[in-house]
Amino acid sequence: MSMIHTTDLTKRFKDLTAVDNLDLTIEKGEIFGLLGPNGAGKTTTVLMLTTVIKPSSGTAVVGGYDVRENPNDVRKLIGICFQEPKILWVSTPLDVLNWHAKVCGLSTQERKRRVKQVLEDVNMWDDRGKKVHDLSGGMKKRVEIAKVLIQRPRIAFIDEPTAQIDVVGKHKIWNMIRELRDEGSTIILATNELYEADVLSDRVGIMHKGKMLVCDTPKTLKDSIPGGDIVEIQLEKDVSKKILKDLTSFQEVVDLTVLTPNNIKVYLNKVEEIVPQIMELLVKKGVPVRSINMTEPSLDDVFIHYTGLTIEEAEQKSPSR
Amino acid sequence: MLVVERDLRTFLRFKVLIIMRSIWFAAQVAFFGLIASRMVVPQLADIYFEYYVAGVVVMMLYSASVFIGYDIFEEAEHGVFEYLLSLPVSRRELVLGRSIGGGIRSFMLVGPLIAITLLVFGLANPLNFLIALSALFLFAFGVSGMSITIAVTLKSGDRFDIFMGALNALIVRLSTAMYPQAFVQQASLTYAEISRFNPVTFASDMFRWGTGIEKYLTVTPMPLAAILGLVLFFFAFTVVGVTFYEKRLEGGGWQ
């Protein structure tokens, strides 16, 4: 069952098309990673889906409601953690979260319980009375994500959830996002952190220059790169031409390099299926294996494959609004 | 109501601003009012002083109600606007809440000053006072609505500052807050006509009539026109405010 469906969703800012005819379906209960460099159109997409801004053309149905025709109904279903914390500097974390919980309709008892719980979970309980002005960037971001964790909306939009947050904090927040999904929320995770998208997302959509380039599970995307998996095999004795020929006969093997007479590097797909077959072949041919080292492709490689650029290069080339 | 609550809580955090405004009021009354009233004929000095104090209260109510517009720029700068637009609150509720919140908080600022004024000068008729107070609430909500409307229309803090400065100069100076209608008429018939249909004039007339602070220089004994004018002013800017808010912000955020 789809929770979000967009049709030709487009947003133009004067001469710049920030989101260009986006067609996207997000299923109920999944963590969908919207991946792309800064300026790819992720945040603009999130702002349209959350009814903060209107599309220039096309539309989106969120939780069964059209963002153009029923924005008030859409807003009742969603919660959003913005990329930049949206908090007035004179407020305190406790005030911000209490008010947010009230607006989202939580009962007094439930509100108090959740606010305390989440502030403790994001390590902000001791700083709950400080003015936002006195908080670090990472602390502000924790308050921002705490809004969604307290609200527990049916559809949560989380934009760069761990920007400016330390490594320990990142893992904690990732776990909280997974828990939110396990409790039934559909999560749209906009990020330019490829590793974050990889470890958290059930499916990933890669955006570049306002367009959706490709959309699938992280594994399928990685498998879609020809020769994306790399296996380095060190043998007990030198490898013969016959064995090299046998190895290249596997359909999944894309390329092969002999590093030293007893050390070869194989570029292939579906590593987990092919490596056992390669091992079996080598044993059968009487060539014992000394060591084997496998490297899977990352989403960085996927991004490079589809755009021809690293995410850093893409960010440098992206237009600013 | 939650939108109103938020605005009030935010306002109370600006303690320095509240103190500054109170000092401004005290200085206007204690220095400017006392000295300026000595410039009129001696028989009218005390009467003009009372007239002036009532005018300063309304001027302060006006400037405090305008303040919500500056809050909008503060929020736009911190991105809070987008957050508010993403909440499960309709645009209509949001702008009404902010308009009412802006009005109430200006009363929180001016209320104690009104109380002190009444304590010093006395209160002639409690019923009149209640009617006047209700009209002043409408005035404050209307000014807040006007400020929000202008803020979301201009979408620039600098332009808003300049525009509100110019508007303040015109709307307050071309009113009867500081000088009675008869004297405005003597100076210029055009000025008099403009001041007659000015919400600050309506509010000043209502305040003086309702409190009975000054009975000699206020022209209209029962300012029905002022009540009607303030009701219209409130409805106009509440409706216009909602419409502009929806069109200007939902159409593309603050960008």
Note down, in words, how this protein is organized.
The complex is a heterodimer of chains A (321) and B (255). Chain A is an alpha/beta fold. Chain A folds into 2 domains: 2-222, P-loop containing nucleotide triphosphate hydrolases (Rossmann fold); 226-295, 2-Layer Sandwich (Alpha-Beta Plaits). Chain A is 38% helix and 29% strand. Chain A is built from 12 helices and 14 strands. Chain A has helices at 42-49, 71-77, 93-103, 108-121, 137-151, 167-182, 194-200, 218-223, 241-248, 271-284, 299-307, 311-317, and strands spanning 2-13, 16-27, 31-35, 57-62, 65-66, 78-81, 155-159, 186-191, 203-208, 211-216, 229-235, 253-260, 263-268, 289-295. A 6-stranded mixed β-sheet of chain A has the order 6-7-8-3-9-10, sandwiched between helices. In chain A, strands 2-1-4-5 form a 4-stranded antiparallel β-sheet, with helices on one face. In chain A, strands 12-13-11-14 form a 4-stranded antiparallel β-sheet, with helices on one face. In chain A, a hairpin with a 2-residue loop joins strand 12 and strand 13. In chain A, helix 3 runs parallel beside helix 5. The longest helix of chain A is centred in the middle third of the chain and has 16 residues, at 167-182. Chain A starts with a strand and ends with a helix. Chain B has one domain (2-249). The relative contact order of chain B is 0.15. Chain B is mostly helical and 255 residues long. Chain B has helices at 2-13, 15-37, 45-77, 80-85, 91-121, 126-154, 157-173, 181-187, 189-196, 199-211, 224-250. The mean pLDDT of chain B is 80. Chain B is built from 11 helices and no strands. The longest helix of chain B is centred in the first third of the chain and has 33 residues, at 45-77. Chains A and B meet through helix 2 and helix 3 of A and helix 1 and helix 4 of B.
